[in-house]
Specification:
By secondary structure, the protein is of the alpha+beta class. Helix content is 29%, strand content 21%. Strands 1, 2, 9, 10, 11, 12, 18 and 19 form an eight-stranded mixed sheet that branches. A four-stranded mixed sheet has the order 6-7-5-14. Strands 15-16-13-17 form a four-stranded antiparallel sheet, with helices on one face. β18 (315-320) and β19 form a beta hairpin. The radius of gyration is 23 Å and the shape is globular.
Length: 476
Amino acid sequence: MFDVAVIGCGITGAAVACALARREVSVVVLEAENDVAMGTTKANSAILHAGYDPEPGTRMAKWNVRGAALAKELCEALDVPRKQIGSLVLAFTDEEVPHLEKLLANGIANGVEGLRILTAQEVAEMEPHLAPVKAALYAPSAAIVNPWEYAIALAENAVENGAQVRLSSAVTGAERTEQGWLLHTKTGDVEARFVVNAAGVRAGEVHEMAAPRSFETHPCRGEYYLLDKCEGTRVSHVIFQCPNKLGKGVLVSPTVHGNLIVGPNADDANSVANTASGLAFVAETARKSVPDVDLRQNIRNFAGVRANTDQSDFIFGFAAPGFLDLAGMKSPGLTAAPAAAEDAVRVLEEAGLDAPAKADPVTTRRKIRFRELSDEERAKLTAERPEYGRVICRCETITEGEIIDACREVIPPCSIDGVKRRAGSGMGRCQGGFCGPRVMEILSRECGLDPLAIPQDGTGSYILTGHTKEGGTRHE
């Protein structure tokens, strides 16, 4: 019997687990996929929004601003890449300028600091590659982050503080008991006094295991270009267009890895497949903001699915006694996650969870990033651990030592992309074409995995089917 079972280990579930595990409660996280951060968390715009977009007084507005502040603290403490580069919302016509003024008023009401509207000349001086504009809203507190490493760091911190994370454990049913809830999963039953539903796109389905339907989920696909590092300085801020009913629109932004991300569109689909029409729309719309963006430098296209619902705000509340919904965590869900976790702990306590703070929880993490070290630091490290002197991923300068460290984390990877999310191998121009086999070899050796059982990413995305010439006929 656990005190709390958290369903889903994307950024929201990981944040809830992290917050709970720093208290004297027993926590289990049930994740349907073979790794954490496998849904919307691994495929999004990677933006920590300032908080001017949500309507004042909404849960979304509160969690956005509070979450951005908490994210700054958490990323620093857990050594997660984050850069506060600020954002610009562009008005291309006189008719769009009043919308900037509305966003400015929203932001002030929400408590966002430093907001101001820039003139066309100020914008041109700040970002010379932009198309001519009438004005822009400047939000200096906006930031970019590594979203999957953020979620992994939170989940790992939860484990280090005593939580359990059970992968490949999709919840298939829920029953109310005298003590709380009995959850049926693909890896066995779990009992918990309280349940937090942070299942992302599946949150509606999970809700209906405990209560009648009260909201509709409308998954929305967003498609992206990821451009090589030679385009990474095309702009130096997150560049938005005026938002519309479909969301915040197509953006152009640097990433914390030094690339440039372009996207997304908004398509009603529960699929991560890219489409020619979707990518064409993204390209055309992005060039409205940055006419000379060079999409020929694309190294990867990808798509993510937003957990949109028929409600405009985040969904938060008890679906049934002890069964807390944290659903509809669409944008700015990445930003809002730690604030949502903070409120989740509060309402669970109000509902009877005894959760005093631990006397001395683990609150920090440090990672070795070889390419960021000085020559002296590299020399010292490789003398102590020679595996750091062997570069496996040439594009990103990721060493064998970093991959070994990733394999030895408290939530170890089971796939090639799982290593990528932890160590950064395969993130560069060749997208793992060179380092993939070596990563597989190290992963197999360090985690005791059969190479034939190692997937590229999710369960079933296998790479190898057998040994070369096995069972074949030799021809002279």
